[in-house]
Amino acid sequence: MTNSFYDQFPSHRGRMEYVCLGCRARLDIDELYYTCPQCNEVLLLEDTQFDELRRTSPEQWREAFDLRAATRRSDLKGIFRFYELTAPVLEPEDIVWLGEGNTPIIPASSALAGHVGQDLAFKNDGQNPSASFKDRGMACAFSYLKALIRRHGWDQVLTVCASTGDTSAAAALYAAYVGGAIKSVVLLPQGKVTPQQLAQPLGSGAVVLELPGVFDDCMKVVEYLAENYRVALLNSKNAWRILGQESYAFEVAQHYAWDMADKAVFVPIGNAGNVTAIMSGFLKLHRLGIIEQLPRIFGVQSAHADPVYKYYDESDPAKRAYHPVTVQSSVAQAAMIGNPVSFPRVRHLADQYEQAGGPGMFHVVQVEEQAIIEGMLLANRHGHIACTQGGECLAGLLRARELGLMQAQETAVLDATAHSLKFIGFQEMYFENSFPSEYGITPREELMNAPRRVLSPDVKVRLSSREYTLEAGRAVAEVLHLQAKL
Ligand SMILES: *Cc1c(COP(=O)(O)O)cnc(C)c1O
Ligand SMILES: [Zn+2]
């Protein structure tokens, strides 16, 4: 390989189509579709030329992606390092890159691994630009939108999304950067996103509309808008978002030198877009022989929002039935969804996944609210920056171990989907023992933490600067039981 490989934009182009998961209709990507006009089912994107990629050997692909990690081109630095596997219909000028992707995988310290009883690592997707994995999907959706605007010469595009917080933060960020014809509107359930998540779209200049209800209510309104008005929907119903989020799987595989044997990937499930994307990504690598073994996938849901868990809890596939649930308050608020839009995609991909890898490759586990918040606190006490959904993954790993689903030699890769700071209010409620009763969380002393006041403010006023330093120094030494030097 010469360095032309990583400093030149790939020449390969595919042919992409939407495929309906209901009636198998194929639709042209030159139109904005979110659901099938014939049967209303959700869509996935497919590259009909995908098999051409087999002309390149698995070794060549691995080497190519490894070399491309050193690129100087901003259009190949993020999720489009894996351009040929992602959206090989975009041109370099379409690609938006705000630093998304390439997030680190941090192995747990031996103390945490010892406590859990299993090797584990967190992939910190909170280190994306708007501090969640949603940026991966937005980078792809906005790049495609730019291509459409370029081809059609549109002068105004209104992007809309409903959000449990992070989708709107990401959508508003990318819209603010692209600017021009694009204007961003976000619909949030009033009082159901954290102050940090509300601040993000406001700061990016989006129109923020609050509606009473929960996420599922907002989602219905956005679907109504997308059906009846000319707007671009940016929820994960938009299949371009799924494509961009596949990069998570590609990066995990690359991190482990393309060896996925004895790996179990844990993903929180909300609207189920991310777990869909991750399975789809690993399947693509597997089809091309870039990975020889698929990792096992564990979806995790809170008992307060668990329709996907309930579906798979029936072990006989013939008897499974999907029912939306009414959600209850959850600290994994970004996953607090009772009727996940991508459920049909999960069913479709989980089937393919088990066909390719065998039974037991896909599981969904259910965890309690107490375990979720304590998963986050435990992770972060060991040097991680997990959000509550990252904590949900750790709770899911502990649950999988209880159920005897983990093997001793396996490494669990946990998706820390957002930065801990976005969900810090839940930590505060735990530390202050102020959870409303519907969460069902009782803090444990050993996991609580609070600032300790050392001196009263009047001391500062009364003393000179020098006296104050001495007084405060002695007070701190006393609290810490420090031994004086001899
Ligand atoms: C969106 C989101 C989820 C849920 O992902 P889905 O794709 O909706 O299943 C989990 N964690 C965080 C932090 C999120 O923003
Ligand atoms: Zn259809």
From TrEMBL:
Q: In which pathway does it act?
A: Amino-acid biosynthesis; L-threonine biosynthesis; L-threonine from L-aspartate: step 5/5
Keywords, comma-separated and alphabetical:
Amino-acid biosynthesis, Pyridoxal phosphate, Threonine biosynthesis
| Listed GO biological process terms | threonine biosynthetic process
Identify the domain of life: Bacteria
Q: Does the keyword Calcium apply?
A: no
Q: Give the reactions, separated by semicolons, that this protein catalyses.
A: O-phospho-L-homoserine + H2O = L-threonine + phosphate
| Record GO terms (molecular function) | pyridoxal phosphate binding; threonine synthase activity
Tell me any Pfam family this protein matches. Answer: PALP
Cofactor needs: pyridoxal 5'-phosphate
Show where the Tryptophan synthase beta chain-like PALP domain sits.
97-413
Q: What is its EC number?
A: 4.2.3.1
Family of the protein in this entry:
Belongs to the threonine synthase family.
* Name of this chain's protein: Threonine synthase
- Organism of origin is Desulfonatronum thiosulfatophilum
